[in-house]
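Supplementary Text 2. Reproducibility record for the structural model of the 100-residue chain.

All settings were left at their defaults, and a single model was retained for analysis rather than an ensemble. We include the record here because the model underlies the residue-level annotations in Supplementary Table 4.
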Amino acid sequence: MWAETSCYLGDKGSIAVTRDRVIRTPAFRINPVDTTGAGDAFNAAFIYAYVVKGLDLEEASIVANAAAALKCLKLGAQTGMPKLRELKGFLEERGYAISL
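Retained model, structure tokens:
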């Protein structure tokens, strides 16, 4: 099932909507340094997790929210983008066993 839309809502998390479902995923609680580029990080991670890795909507949304949170912990829209190993570590530290 393809998401018809997925939307990053900042500190409110995200929402993915299909014909049949609405999936709301909470944000990770962080102390942001720079939110510039958080939406881009979310979108890139969502596409990677959902389309490339084939994760379900719930897991893809968690991964995308984690990427956005990580981005917010660093300065710079591009220089602050998280690396895959950082994303994996962030998720593991929070108890998520999602295969990336």
